[in-house]
UniProtKB/TrEMBL annotation:
It comes from the Bacteria. It comes from Bowmanella dokdonensis. PANTHER family: AMINO-ACID AMINOTRANSFERASE, AMINODEOXYCHORISMATE LYASE. This is Aminodeoxychorismate lyase. Pathway: Amino-acid biosynthesis; L-valine biosynthesis; L-valine from pyruvate: step 4/4; Amino-acid biosynthesis; L-isoleucine biosynthesis; L-isoleucine from 2-oxobutanoate: step 4/4; Amino-acid biosynthesis; L-leucine biosynthesis; L-leucine from 3-methyl-2-oxobutanoate: step 4/4; Cofactor biosynthesis; tetrahydrofolate biosynthesis; 4-aminobenzoate from chorismate: step 2/2.
Length: 284
């Protein structure tokens, strides 16, 4: 497996990062995951835009333009076989000689990229798609969930709750009992034919798949779509619940907190949504 680290390509076994890197000590960095199928990326420009916003929010100065990123990614895809590959990009604030909360402005960021195999490309086929069983709990993460920080301890602790109960994901709700997102996905619900997802704010990641799905549904379907606050009561009585993320695309949830979602199987609107997503995802 060839990786990229600080200007060089090398086998993963040769990659070395100092333990004084702020990414290691503080989780002081951001990341992206971009899916690619047979060498074609999905949502590259959108991922680049979110990466730039994240760097700006953290005041990390990185002298790398989109063309440079694209060059690195193409080299990694070539070296790693151009199958179905997720591309992980990671920028940390860089390395210092001592551990301190304060940081100098002139640190050289650590830049790391690797690819990993995506087992199967998502399909709009109820008999082939993996279905998700989830639990819910109160969102205990920080108030800047819109930043794609590598500091994912909150998400991991939530994810673990589900893992211990043999669940695939965990839906999160805020103190007002409103849905925010899931531990590693955004969430959509369908009620009486209307699709809804929570509005963008500090409580959730502005998912690229979320953005693309909203855009695709509005452009290519007559289905009504809202970005609005969704109470957990509404989630519990929804006809369908979907998770969205770069690797899962649109994934059907069939069980929430031990109760079936709708009929307890993949829904008809999910099938339409994933079919439209499959048909149009390379336009982004
Ligand atoms: N929400 C969280 C917390 C995530 O970690 C992710 C990333 O997978 C998402 C949502 C989905 O974002 P995207 O569609 O950009 O992959």
């Amino acid at each position: 497996n060839m990786i990229y680290l600080n200007g060089q390509f090398m086998p993963i076994e040769q990659a070395r990062i100092s333990p004084m890197d702020r990414g290691f000590l503080f989780g002081d960095g951001i990341y992206e995951v971009i899916p690619s199928y047979q060498g074609r990326m999905v949502g590259f420009a959108l991922h680049m835009a979110r990466l730039k916003q994240g760097l700006a929010a953290l005041e990390i100065r990185l002298d790398m333009d989109t063309a440079r990123w694209q060059g690195i990614i193409e080299q990694l895809l070539d070296a790693n076989g151009k199958g179905n590959l997720g591309i992980y990009l990671h920028v940390s604030r860089g390395m210092e000689t001592r551990r301190a909360h304060a940081y100098p402005d002139n640190l050289e960021p650590t830049v790391f990229a690797f690819t990993f195999e995506i087992p199967t490309e998502p399909v709009a086929d109820a008999s082939k798609t993996p279905v998700f069983r989830v639990v819910s709990e109160q969102d205990k993460r920080w108030k800047r969930c819109n930043i794609k920080s590598t500091a994912l301890l909150g998400n991991i602790m939530h994810y673990r709750t589900g893992q211990k109960r043999q669940m695939n994901e965990v839906l999160l709700f805020n103190e007002a009992n409103e849905l925010t997102e899931a531990a590693s996905c955004n969430v959509f619900v369908v009620t009486q034919g209307r699709i809804a997802t929570p509005p963008l704010d500090h409580q959730l990641l502005p998912g690229i798949t979320r953005h693309m799905l909203l855009d695709i549904l509005r452009q290519y379907s007559e289905l009504p779509v809202d970005e609005r606050i969704i109470s957990m009561d509404e989630v519990r009585s929804a006809d369908e619940i979907w998770l969205t993320s770069s690797s899962k695309e649109v994934a059907p949830v069939v069980e929430l907190d031990g109760k079936p979602v709708g009929q307890g199987k993949t829904g008809p609107i999910w099938q339409q949504a994933q079919a439209l997503f499959s048909a149009h995802k390379y336009e982004y």
